[in-house]
Write the structure tokens for this entry.
Amino acid sequence: MAHMNMVTPPPDLVAISALQSKLVSALRPILPEYALLWEPEDTIPYECDGLAAYKRMPLAVALPETEEQVAQILKICFAMQIPVVPRGSGTGLSGGAMPISQGLVLSLAKLKKILSIDPFTRTAVVQPGVRNLAISEAVAHLGLYYAPDPSSQIACSIGGNVNENSGGVHCLKYGLTLHNVLRVRGVLMNGEIVEFGSLAPDSPGLDLLAIMMGSEGMLAVVTEVTVKLVAKPKLARVIMASFDDIEKGGNAVAAIIAAGIIPAGLEMMDKATTRAVEEFVHAGYDLDAAAILLCESDGTPEEVAEEIERMTKVLEQAGASGIQISKDESERLKFWSGRKNAFPAAGRLAPDYYCMDGTIPRRHIATLLKRIAGMEEKYGLGCLNVFHAGDGNMHPLILFNGADQEEWHRAEEFGTEILEACVELGGTITGEHGVGIEKINSMCVQFGEGERETFWGVKSAFDPEKLLNPDKAIPTLTRCAEYGRMRISGGKLPHPELERF
Amino acid sequence: MAALNPKIDVFREQILEAAKNQTPLSIEGGGTKSWYGNPNTYSKLDTRNYSGILEYQPEELVITACAGTPLQEIEAALSEKNQVLAFEPPHFGEQATFGGAIAAGLAGPGRISVGNFRDFVLGARILDGNGQDLSFGGKVMKNVAGYDVSRLLPGSMGTLSLLLEASVKVLPKPAATATLRCQISQANALRVLNEWAGQPLPISASCWIGNANSDGQLMIRLAGAAAAVKAAIPLMSSLVMASEVDSDIATIFWSELREHQLQSFTNLSADQTLYRLALPAACGPLSIPGASNEVVLEWHGQQRWIKAPGDENTFAAIKQLATNHGGHATRFRQGASVDPSYQRFTLLNEQAHSNALVAVQERLRSVFDPAGVFATKRLP
């Protein structure tokens, strides 16, 4: 990951320090000593999330252990008009949990109990700090699991998943967080406790649960989540298909869907990625292939056999140059190991990498990959392409050296150009990582002024004072105007010394 | 993203005129669901002139169409490519439109296995109460840029904005289907359906119709890979002594259930109301004083249809019962002699856990519609 850069110039140290003392003394009576941090050596781990290029020090960090404490903290901050940045496990890749200099970081990490599991209704009630994978582990003995599986699932929290509407490699068949959460309990910025959705199939009034999903910690602080559990498939097998041409690989993806098959997973890697990961995991990938497609089927043994046969036929017709089908579970995991280790493998090729997250209509996959190849030349930086081909969600990994400020700027420009290409091809700037602070300028490209003003309106409906994570996801009019001027000047930054999220 | 379109300009003029005169507009498509929700006498905004499929590429699993497009036209186009709206939105008449189905937000038998209408909405183009032409979401499954405004529209009953166009996810038709039928009590049906739902079985829908106090008939629809359906039939049949239903008869049954054409729905008497209860999976059989003995359970018991007197006391008791079990109740359809001015829905402030949302919802509505152009109260 990238580091450095983006250092906020201290506006007024004296004022900040006074505010900090005021906040800390207000919070002290409601939190145990260990649950309130303000000394720089204690708060520095919170200066950034999984996107380390963007960092800032907060006034303080609160680590409540109960919903009651969360509500009290919010009431105090609301009264003091101090902005609050909620934080889960800090694995987010868009800087959505980056602190605000004159604000509080509200970590939900200590709310990490699984409150109840009900196999009969296939539901579990969990606190926001529970790790995604911990839910599936806790219900495995019942033959159930929680379907969304973002690649950070070992570490990422369910509260974070709700706020990012996280996906994963299996969401083509099993849906996003949105489709797997029944109810969210939370606290509004004014300290009021609210519940969105219910255990019933629908709820009175407008569907406010839907708008909470992916709201990037800007509408309410999540304190409890009721998730849907689904039956664990008896078997999974994966086909690994090689293609000598990226276009053929892209067309094979479309052909599988057109044949009426929804694979459990449908992932693609380009040649550069295959080479990088093979060196890392030794899975026996075809190093000459221009693209490798991983195509998974799950279900009963009969179902899997039928689907694997159908998919194999489609892949052959689409011109696959090689096809291997996993014989057993260990081989299946071996085929997947490269895809799952693409990020660490990228980390071995360059000091830093910058992970993008655009989504495009499936039919444009090859077009976008060709454009990215052109951008590699233009910016003089390498790029690995791994993606959730089934749903067109691309993760180009731009390789760069973060110690070189100029190279980081080039990587950023490269990323921005990829996102603009995604919008132009009818897609979106972010499929599952969120806008956060990272892609906030690209929101000016994807949405017009009317849409952005509506987003601000939606935020105000929940948080009229705009105190909850207010500098993320939705750009202000001024920011977009400035961004527009910056783009016009040809990618050369007018004042590189200024912060410019 | 305003594109020049005279039809949209006409809508905009209507909206601006309504804003100026402070008179709400009642949005209507084919009028097939005009009986659903709270009634009003405001002037209509007819969407049917804005019709047509704008984009449909089967391999993208997405269809984009104008609000006034007949739902039949959309389903026919999908069927040609062997695809479907998997949540099976009810039509309630041949004139049903795409926009009307979204505004009502209703789903049919498939809802229990694939999800609700909002789970399938990917993007929408709207005119808000200021006549602004706005687009949210998009045409791809994974999209977290900005708040998910388009998913607020299903079930909003035209009280938020005028829907112009929407992109909806579609799915391939299942490779195979089969329907099983057995005689079973309500309690046993609820138990067995929930047990099966926790196993890897290809169940796509269920319906129990019977006498609340004795036996009834359970229909179970299986859908998926041919091998999976074939393997499940003997396994499930042996547990509940079920037999397979002829496929033509089954198709008619599931369609009549979705369209409320079964006798259990059409025999509503003039002083009765058809109540819809949405309940958690854990809810066992309910006994409702004054209700007809016959009940219809769908979605493994999470959606229940009950015929009972249409008076306010009965609705109050049913609402209380549903709320106590963690769900809510709706006056879905009223008999001819029931007062049409009765509130049809459970209100947010009638449930302790959603009381705080009253103010949020009100502010949210005013963002989209500051002048109250869509404030018909059709959905409170």
